[in-house]
Design goal:
The chain is built from 3 helices and no strands.
Amino acid sequence: MINRLTESLDFHGQALVLRAERQRVIASNIANADTPGYKARDFDFAAALRSATSRSATSRSATSGNAMSGSATVGSNIGHDIAADVMAG
């Protein structure tokens, strides 16, 4: 029962991290709208969330029954992974 609750809360936490990252990217686009040669950036929120939740599920199944340790590690890397994807695109 605790595992299901943890998975549910983990999903919402990852969604919040991704939404915050997308807002940062959009704010950067607005701030640089008048900059010559600036190319607006964005990322696919749905694909990023699917990727983050699948990595989270994989890391949880790889741990020895401690779901919190796997989700904390994955959650902290989401913003970094998205930033790398945005900068590459």
